Amino acid sequence: MRKLMMGLALVVMVHLLAGAASAYEQIIQCNSKPCYGTKNSDKILERIGNGKPDKILARGAHDLVRANNYTNDTDVVKSGGGFDTVNVADGDKRDTAKPGLGINKCIVDARKEAGAGCARVVVR
Question: What span, in angstroms and rounded, lies between the C-alpha atoms of 37 and 14?
Fold first, then answer.
């Protein structure tokens, strides 16, 4: 009985890990302003380079938006419905995270960067 339960637990864990590994349907590397996500779950990355302001518009599902790699810019991130994570903690305090409906996590440099749609705010 114990071996059966261990085997079942292993099968469940493999399925959970496989789901986590493929949680985002696509990765979008922004090359223009504005930059748009799709209606699916996306991982959206800001434009490459310091001093390049971004306007990122995620659309639906559960998105991860990372505008935290380059500094000396003003990034504005707006997301749609779903459970989104918006990261604008890039070392400056000029960015704005404006998630839409859903339970959203915003990672920011200062509390003033978090919009009203941020259900959970992490200040770095």
Answer: 29
Give me the sign of the Cα torsion angle 48, 51, 55, 56. Answer: positive
Nearest Cα to Cα of residue 68 among 48, 53, 88: 88
Q: How many domains does the chain have?
A: 1
Which residues constitute the domain of residue 95?
25-123
Q: pLDDT tens, 33-73?
A: 999 999 999 999 999 999 999 999 998 899 999 999 999 99
- The predicted structure's pLDDT at residue 18: 39
Record the tokens describing residue 121, joined without a space: 């705010």
Residue 2: C-alpha distances to residues 7, 14, 16 (Å)? 9, 18, 21
